[in-house]
Amino acid sequence: MKEKNAQKLWGYTFVAPALLILGIFMLLPILQIFYYSVTDWNGGINASYIGLKNYVDIFNNPDFYTVLKNNLIILLLGVPLWTIFPLLIAMLIYEEIKGYKFFKTVYFFPSVLSIVIVGTLFKTFFGYVGPINMLLRSLGLDNLALEWLAEGRTSLPIIVLAVNWAGFGQAVLIYLAAMSAIDPSIHEAAQLDGANWWQKSFFVTLPGIKNVVEFTIVLNIIHAFSQMFSYVLVMTNGGPGYESTVLEYFIYLKGFRAGDMGYASALSVILFVLVCVINMLQSLLNRKED
């Protein structure tokens, strides 16, 4: 018992510095945000308590619902695409098609590019005089040549595509790592039983990586709410109006452009709670399914 307690003590001793750093730089700021969300704070030293006024103002602001709608559109469009597309690519590479090693490298290449480069690339491609519109005009489809990033109905799907192109290589590697842990004899047995590629993929491979797929979905949900700021800033700047503004960018506008840090803190709390609730619902659905 003494030896076991000594091992625990040494374990806590080695973990303590990391926990201390996390507490100072993550937990403490989160608690501060909750406090500032109920104050009238402009980013200075003094913050006066105003109760739930910031939250009341947020829920009475029609712009908030526009921004929230944009996040939900990105969630509904992005999460299926960011989950299924790399999964299909990973399944093809897992079968070791000709040149699969080359494809693994090529697919991962966009993941090493910065978001600014990816956003600028897509902004150029979908600009009014960009390659996409030039191609449409050359095909006689002048009516389809649009200012793609000037409207929410077209800019949000393009942002989703940009995120997918930039990050699907990383998701492919995660899926491939999970697939490599599946016992090859199971695939061999399925093949001997006459299973084709689709049957092996959906009845052998997918059940074998189910937990990884669920984990990826959770990450994508968080991504849809907390990783869109840079794409919006580079590609659309949130415009026109709030048509392509997401909650992250809305927080930035209210906090750093308007100087209302208390209001921005309340928005941050809402975003934090929203992501937590969605992930809890996802976990409950997965447990029910299990």
Map the helices and strands:
Layout: H1 2-36, E1 39-41, E2 47-49, H2 53-59, H3 62-94, H4 100-108, H5 115-125, H6 131-138, H7 152-179, H8 184-192, H9 197-208, H10 210-226, H11 229-235, H12 247-257, H13 261-289
Antiparallel strand pairs: 1-2
Describe this structure in words.
The two termini are 38 Å apart. The protein is built from 13 helices and two strands. Helix content is 74%, strand content 2%. Strands 1-2 form a two-stranded antiparallel sheet. It is mainly alpha-helical and 290 residues long. The model has no long low-confidence stretch (mean pLDDT 87).
Quick summary:
This protein has helices spanning 2-36, 53-59, 62-94, 100-108, 115-125, 131-138, 152-179, 184-192, 197-208, 210-226, 229-235, 247-257, 261-289, and strands spanning 39-41, 47-49. It is mainly alpha-helical.
Helix content: over 70%
Number of strand segments: 2
Strand fraction equals: under 5%
How would you state the average pLDDT, rounded?
87
Q: What's the order of the H and E elements?
A: HEEHHHHHHHHHHHH
Q: Count the helices. How many?
A: 13
**What's the gyration radius in Å?**
24 Å
Biggest sheet features: 2 strands, antiparallel
* N- and C-termini, Cα separation: 38 Å
Overall outline: flat
Q: Reading side by side through the largest sheet, how are the strands ordered?
A: 1-2
Low-confidence stretches: none
Structural class of the helix and strand makeup?
mainly alpha
